[in-house]
Write a structure and sequence with these properties.
Radius of gyration: 18 Å
Helix content: 40-55%
Strand content: under 5%
Number of helices: 1
Distance between the termini: 47 Å
Shape: rod-shaped
Largest sheet: none
Length: 43
């Protein structure tokens, strides 16, 4: 693994998987919640 592409390919895969997991594991907002409501914010 001496060239940059050998490092870039796994890095892209890891970043993509991390983004997908982050988006899927976040608590979903309720349908009635809009930007002004505080239902999804921690106090």
């Amino acid at each position: 693994m001496s060239d940059w592409q050998s490092w870039a390919a796994p890095a892209v895969v890891i970043v993509t998987v991390a983004i997908l997991l982050w988006r899927n594991l976040r608590p979903a907002k309720e349908a009635s919640c809009d930007e002004e409501c505080d239902c999804g914010k921690k106090e």
